[in-house]
Design a protein that fits this description.
Elements lengths: L1 E2 L26 H8 L6 E6 L2 E3 L11 E5 L22 E3 L4 H9 L4 E2 L6 H10 L3 E4 L2 H4 L7 E3 L5 H11 L19 E3 L2 H4 L5 H6 L4 E3 L5 E2 L5 H14 L16
Parallel strand pairs: 1-4, 5-6, 5-7, 7-8
Antiparallel strand pairs: 2-3, 2-4, 9-10, 10-11
């Protein structure tokens, strides 16, 4: 067997970037064997057995030579058997309980992102399947659940590095629409007249700020606060990586993500 590129992240050092022998004693599908080795099926796009592409149901035989590849971004493999469904047309996410700060970053960038700190694994898998969401997690066993078709194991630990990793790995630069969602609850923001929310504003905000947005779900108010320059710099950094393809957005924000 040999695993390629970032799939090696899931292997012990002695098995990374080399061919190795894997012994088995009972009939097994290629999917079950790969996941027993430690690689979630959601990370895989192509499997070659003796040079022929196969799907996850292929039964492994003694002497098979197996090559396993991650998602392809630059190669045309249309004539081969892809083991995963096509990418989702719209990138929507559900995150496990350990990725709360990443959820706020993704919402800041405009992505529909479900997160609660009390989601059970079964509920995460159900939401990913039923609502066609990409499951983001640092639990590889969660990605091995058969019901999960679109998922990604987050390698980075620090939240800002995590969001940079997700945007780059899933090529989401053009899909970014900053400051359109509530970072607290994921609701959409809408412009609201100052007069309508005047009594809810702190005195200093009431005196100096004129532009406001309100979350349609939880009612959280957003305006341009002192932390907005930090948000601008973060988005500018992403914009630079994307060749300035991220759309400009009015910088109205409230809580610091």
């Amino acid at each position: 067997m040999r695993f390629y590129e970032e799939l090696n992240d899931f292997l012990p050092p002695a098995r990374r970037k080399v061919r190795f022998i894997h012994e088995f004693r009972r009939r097994a599908s290629i999917k079950d064997m790969i996941e027993a080795i430690g690689v979630p099926h959601t990370e895989i796009d192509l499997i070659l057995v003796n040079g022929r592409s196969v799907d996850f149901s292929h039964i492994v035989r003694d002497g098979d030579q197996i090559s396993v590849y991650p998602l392809f971004e630059a190669f045309d493999i249309q004539s081969l058997v892809r083991v995963r469904p096509r990418s989702l047309r719209v990138s929507r996410f559900v995150l496990d309980v350990h990725l709360g700060k990443l959820a706020r970053y993704l919402r800041l960038l405009g992505f529909d992102t479900l997160y609660r700190n009390d989601y059970e694994d079964a509920e995460l898998a159900r939401l990913a399947s039923a609502e066609r969401r990409i499951l983001l997690t640092r639990d590889r066993d969660l990605l091995k659940r058969a019901v999960v078709t679109h998922g990604y194991y987050v390698r980075a630990v620090e939240p800002r590095r995590q969001v940079e990793e997700i945007v780059e790995r899933l090529d989401l630069y053009r899909a970014i629409q900053p400051l359109q969602r509530c970072v607290r609850c994921n609701g959409l923001l809408a412009v609201v007249p100052k007069q309508q929310v005047r009594e809810r504003l702190p005195p200093e905000t009431r005196r100096y700020i004129e532009a406001f947005r309100e979350c349609g779900e939880c009612g959280q108010l957003y305006w341009e606060g002192s932390h907005v320059p930090h948000i601008r710099r973060f988005i500018d950094d992403l914009r630079a990586r994307a060749g300035n393809e991220i759309p400009e957005t009015d910088p109205v924000a409230g809580p610091d993500p």
